[in-house]
Amino acid sequence: MHMPRAEKIWLTVGLLTMFAFAVVLGVFAFVMGAQPPSDAQAMDPTKVSQTPPFNQPGLKKLGPNNYVADMTAFVFSFAPNRLEVPVGSTVTFNVTSKDVVHGFELVGTNVNMMVVPGLVNSATHTFTQPGDYLILCNEYCGTGHQLMAAHLIVK
Mind giving me the DSSP string for the chain? Predict the structure, then answer.
């Protein structure tokens, strides 16, 4: 089969580009140790309510302006569904699911994670502006999905 010279050139350029992309991806993934965040802690999703710290979900103060929020997601709610922190606080969110895959999006921030049963997902954010931050489930989880929300009040 005859192939025009220009087509051979573009085919070669395309293959070299794909190879270069694979090399760069490999360097970042393996040599530099880039890994997706969290999902480092696993648990039995049927025992979330008995497993610390999720047996008593809530906000815990670790130090001045430093908090950890242990939260559970379940059809169709978050526990706790209301949190309050002062302006300037850094909050680490540890979230797990009791039943199905949920989402955890803190509207107006870069906190956005998938909450998978059996895995604990974590994200940290510093709140420099006061306001009512809405926490939404952004993964369809059933017929009451649109009702699944919580609030973080920054005063």
Answer: ----HHHHHHHHHHHHHHHHHHHHHHIIIIIS----S---EE--GGGGGGSTTTTS-EEEEEETTEEEEEEEEETTEEESSEEEE-TT-EEEEEEEESSS-EEEEETTSS-EEEE-BTEEEEEEEE--S-EEEEEE--S--STTGGG-EEEEEE-
104 is catalytic: no
91 residue type, one letter: V
Given the structure tokens 């993934």, which residue do they identify?
29
Give pLDDT, residue 34. Answer: 60
Q: Which of 74, 93, 104, 127 is catalytic?
A: 74
pLDDT at residue 21 tops 70 = yes
45, 118 Cβ separation under 8 angstroms:
yes
| Catalytic residue of the set 30, 54, 76, 104 | 76
| pLDDT value of residue 33 | 65
Strand partners, 105: 112, 136
76 is catalytic: yes
Whether pLDDT at 58 is above 80: yes
